[in-house]
Structures are given as C-alpha cells and as structure tokens.
Amino acid sequence: MTYNELEQRVRLLVNDTEPAAYRFQIDIIKEFAAEAVRRLRHLNQSERYGADGLLDDKTPDADWSGDVRIESRHVDAVVMYAAHLVYRLDMSDTVNLQLSETLRARAEALMRT
Fold this sequence. Notes:
single chain; globular; mainly alpha; 4 helices
C-alpha cells in the first residue's frame, strides 16, 4: 500500500473523485493518511514493529514515495480515520461533522483489533 493508493481510497470515501474539481488538495489528504498511520501505531502496538524491528513514525518524504507498512486488516481503519480528518475540515456542515465523528469511532475501534 502506498500513500497514493491511500489517497485514492480516502477520496472514494469522501466522494471527491473528480481530478479536475478536487475539493481537497492531494498533500492534505496524504498528510491525513500519515496522521492516521501514526494514530494506528499509537492504538495498536503490534503495528509499531515490522520484520526489521521498530518502524519509524516520521512524516513520509516530500514526494510521498515508498510503501506504507501496515497490516492489510488495518487499511480500512486508516482510510476511515483519514476521511474523518478530511470531514473535520468542513466543520460548518453539521452532517459532515457528525459523519466525521462516526468515522473516527469506527476507525479507532478497528485499529484496536
């Protein structure tokens, strides 16, 4: 899984899939995906370790290259948590705010498994 793939999955969830009319900037969604990975590693200690030992929790390189090292069972949780952060950007819309909190709760529950 790459940050580009995570970005596309988040865009599907928040219904922002038309490249000519993106509502949310690419780097914002990727940064939210990176924050979701950090949240996963905070809530689930098994995600802190890879085959080579402790995983680095730093922000990805500027070009967002490389794989995101998370278990496949947690990909949906990371996508949901990133979508929660995207919806939080639009706090003037109470429906989006409620959806944001619903996604956060579901994501964190999945992250703990």
